[in-house]
Amino acid sequence: MAVTIKDVAAFAGVNPSTVSRVIKDSPSISDKTKIKVRKAMETLGYTQNAAAKILASGKSGAIGVIFPPIENKQSRPFFMKILSSINEEARNNDITVAIATGHSIEELEKQVRLMYSEKRVDGFIVLYAGQSDPVRQYLITENIPFVLVGTPSEMQNEITYVDNDNKLLGKEAVAYLADKDHKHISFVTDTEEGVVFEERYMGFHEELVKRDLVGKLLHFDENNFKVDGESAVIVMDDPLALMVIQSINKQGLNVPDDVSVLSFNNSVFASLIHPYITSFDINVARLGEVAVEKLSELINSDDKSKIYSEKIIVPFYLKERESVK
Asked: CATH assignment of 166-281, given 3.30.420.40, 3.40.50.2300, 3.30.450.20, 3.50.50.60?
């Protein structure tokens, strides 16, 4: 027969209500009483079931991970890698993970609302930082604990977020190539949306001007992309870098002998085919770990008024391979 709170109370010589308050770690109970009650729980082998834990603490012991409403998430290594990191860190802290996903932003918001209203999760990690996002607005309006992976385009002072210094990444990319005597360097992208692009390109441009180098922004079109005098290009991410290398080869040029290619994220795509791509590793594993750490702090804070929004910057490093000469 399962041991109950009443059994623990009788063994410890206290009221059942005292045992309940000890389980909640109430500050109204003395340390001496807490020790006595916890010893009784250990001696009797008392364990709470999941429902009792939720009732006692008001917390589910779970966090939600919100994916962006895009197709083929499995083909994007960032999402799989950071989810693995989040799962590992959560498991180390006895936290379970639930996934929120949807084909549209409306569908996604509906799922997030349902998950929180049914107390299935205590807070969320949001894996995207789009503009005018109703999901993020709901979390803010309802004062729901959440951490953003990426840099929000608005309300940066009210949101806790974890990211790399993307502007510095752009600067470091130019500096690395300039130190190898490249003087004509362009930035290649297939999108101008989002803070990541804006900051990486801004860093690129500022460092280019600072060093008095030649370069421009190139928009990638698979059917009509050519380099024009560049000795090196900096590409928005690794999958795009693969397509850029293929296009350069179609021009009759060689990477890296004629054109060097430098990329970001150091994903599985960087070492898929030769030449392997020199790429900045954005430390995705650490991004996931920090997101769980910060969300746990937000969820478990006794005084929400003393919780301040934070910007946490995770360092990056360069993985040198074959695509830069």
From this structure: 3.40.50.2300
Query: If DSSP codes are grouped into helix, strand and coil, which group holds residue 164?
Result: coil
Looking at the chain, the whole-number percentage of residues with pLDDT higher than 90 is 66
Same fold flag, 62-164+285-314 and 166-281: yes
What fold, for 62-164+285-314? Rossmann fold (3.40.50)
Q: What one-letter code names the amino acid at 281?
A: D
| Sheet of 62-66, strands arranged across | 96-100, 62-66, 124-126, 146-149, 161-163, 311-313
Reading the block at residue 266, the tokens are 């150091």
Percent of all residues in the chain with a pLDDT value above 70, rounded to a whole number? 93
- Tell me the mean pLDDT in the region 105-126: 94
Band (29; pLDDT cuts 50, 70, 90): confident
* Of 92, 88, 136, the residue nearest 286 (C-alpha): 88
Is there a contact between 86 and 292 (Cβ–Cβ < 8 Å)? yes
Stated pTM of the model: 0.77
- CATH 1.10.260.40 for domain 5-57: yes
